[in-house]
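Dear colleagues,

I hope this message finds you well. In preparation for our joint manuscript, I am sending the Flagellar P-ring protein (Azonexus fungiphilus) sequence together with its predicted structure, so that both groups work from identical material. I would be grateful if you could confirm receipt.
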Amino acid sequence: MKTSSGARKSIVVALLACCLGPLSMAPAMAERVKDLATLQGVRNNQLIGYGLVVGLDGTGDQTTQTPFTTQAIGNMLSQMGVNLTAEQAAKLQLKNVAAVMVTASLAPFAKPGQALDVTVSSMGNAKSLRGGTLLLTPLKGADGQIYGMAQGSVMVGGVSGGAGGASVTVNHLSAGRIPGGATVERAVATALGQGGFVYYELAESDFGTATNMVDAINRNMGAGTAQAIDGRRIALRAPESADARVSFLGRVENIEVRAATAQARVVVNPRTGSVVMNQRVSLQPCAVAHGNLSVVVDAGQAGGPGPDVQVKQDAGSLVSVKAGANLADVVKALNSLGANPMDLLAILQAMKAAGALRAELDVI
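The corresponding structure tokens are as follows:
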């Protein structure tokens, strides 16, 4: 079902206005340590390789425009005992072959023999990788060492047909996945801490959350177990033996911590017209004029209730918002006058520049 541009704009603003109220008043919920922080040194490692996908149904690279495909075929054949002259290699027409980049993520503690999922992406002008097979491809890390080998049939998503062939939907065909298509050949050493300590790093630097986490860990694991180093890192005294340390960390990561209230923030995406707020965002007295829209935030009478918001158009229509205004009230008022998301973005930026928007404004 198609949706008109005006309807989409109205939906975005309407959803924004309806959802912000409940979210702004929601209390902070307890979260587990594993949801707030990660163990220092325990991380994924990215792998990459260059390979060939064969068996395509005429949808591969046009070798006159992608000479690296021909060169790769020549190198592969020479390793298998088939030597081609430069003239012979130049005449190859390999519409059933595509040059691809293969990427994978090596999980922490992965050992040789374990399987990895890989992503295969065309780097030439192949029309589709559907039905192809990736040939044996070494996967290298940032240090140039081989950590895995990939091979298998490429699965391309986004292709579906209706009952009886009535309709076919085709999306992106130049990339695909091979579940379990790579085998780990070399492990990456992962150290659980240094000496008698392990270190947790918060996903977002926050002194309040760090303090709450230290208190929760010491309350459950014993006084002196944890100490905050700064607003992001927390040091924990851990057992020396590997088995005891693993058991200790398993208990720690499930401890519930009440995260501190995050800084007020408004995230704006100009490309999609979406605006997201993480909590109640307050406004200071200001007046903004944008096109035929005017937004006025009044300080209210002395000794009276909080600020009022008035939004009007040049034609004279006026919408008043009750006292105690916040940004959600402005969104609702603008929506009632039919303002589109781009109008809202411009007004937010003007409010922030004037110092009237009490929140961080991030444009992504």
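For the figure legend, we might mention the following. The chain has three domains: 5-27+263-363, 30-41+191-258, 45-184. The CA atoms of residues 44 and 93 lie 40 Å apart.

With kind regards,
E.M.
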